[in-house]
């Protein structure tokens, strides 16, 4: 979520006074126009509007990022006006990148604000593109059930269940029974491609 809050803090007042229904906000950033000693080491005062900003961030389950290179984010070209830190990044509490926020003062170009950056890693995700299934009341279903029953009957004779004295031995027997079902499923299931029309 990108925010620009003017000198009257209109955006923050709106977010505080309005029930904004935005789910799963991972990042909130922008020019908040608030000088505060919490993030600006050269500014000795606390701003009351900062309390509103922290309340809003908490509502979205966000935390202020720690700077890796503390320096101004806005450079003033007005005589007598100090440089300041008014551009901030808030990130979701559960993300591990909370201390990797960088300011790039040498990349301002023609702007009086410096770019801010953060690298958020995206974990590799394996997405299944196919599934296996056995249609109800089909020949495959009949064959699957018959295979499971016949293998259970024959393999049960070979399973030694007289000495199940601990959890590990019980799990071993259960795993053998599971293997019988898996084998029957593999032999009779039909593979199909998952599309947007597939049932969940």
Structural commentary:
Helix content is 30%, strand content 14%. The chain has 200 residues and is an alpha+beta fold. It folds into 2 domains: 2-117, Endonuclease/exonuclease/phosphatase (Deoxyribonuclease I, Chain A, 4-Layer Sandwich); 130-193, no CATH class. The strands form 3 sheets. A 4-stranded mixed beta sheet has the order 1-2-4-3, with helices on one face. Helix 1 links the parallel strand 1 and strand 2. The chain starts with a strand and ends in a 7-residue tail after the last strand.
Q: For the residues shown, what is the average pLDDT?
A: 82
- Give the name of the CATH superfamily of the largest domain: Endonuclease/exonuclease/phosphatase
Rg, Å, rounded: 30 Å
**Structural class designation:** alpha+beta
Give the count of helical stretches.
Answer: 4
Main sheet: which strands, in order across?
Answer: 1-2-4-3
Determine the strand fraction and express it as a percent band.
5-15%
Strand count, sense and barrel status of the largest sheet are: 4 strands, mixed
Strands, total number: 8
How many separate structural domains? 2
**CATH class membership of the largest domain:** Alpha Beta
For the record, the CATH architecture of the largest domain stands as 4-Layer Sandwich
Distance between the termini: 31 Å
* CATH third-tier fold name of the largest domain: Deoxyribonuclease I, Chain A
Outline type: elongated
Query: H/E series, N to C?
Result: EHEHEEEEEHHE
DSSP helix fraction = 25-40%
* Low-confidence runs of at least 5 consecutive residues: none
């Amino acid at each position: 979520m990108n925010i620009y809050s003017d000198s009257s803090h209109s955006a923050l007042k709106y977010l505080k006074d309005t029930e904004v229904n935005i789910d799963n906000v991972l990042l909130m950033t922008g020019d908040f126009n608030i000088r505060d000693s919490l993030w600006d080491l050269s500014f000795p005062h606390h701003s009351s509007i900062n309390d509103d900003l922290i309340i809003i961030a908490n509502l979205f389950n966000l935390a202020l990022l720690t700077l890796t290179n503390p320096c101004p984010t806005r450079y003033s070209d007005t005589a007598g006006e100090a440089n300041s830190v008014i551009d901030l990044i808030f990130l979701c509490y559960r993300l591990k990148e909370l201390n990797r926020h960088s300011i790039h003062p040498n990349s301002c170009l023609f702007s009086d604000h410096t770019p801010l950056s953060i690298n958020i890693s995206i974990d590799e995700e394996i997405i299944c593109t196919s599934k296996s299934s056995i249609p109800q009341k089909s020949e495959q279903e009949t064959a699957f059930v018959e295979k499971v029953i016949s293998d259970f009957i024959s393999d049960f004779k070979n399973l030694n269940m007289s000495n199940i004295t601990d959890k590990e031995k019980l799990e071993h027997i259960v795993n053998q029974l599971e293997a019988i079902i898996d084998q029957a499923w593999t032999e009779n299931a039909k593979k199909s491609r998952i599309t947007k029309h597939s049932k969940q």
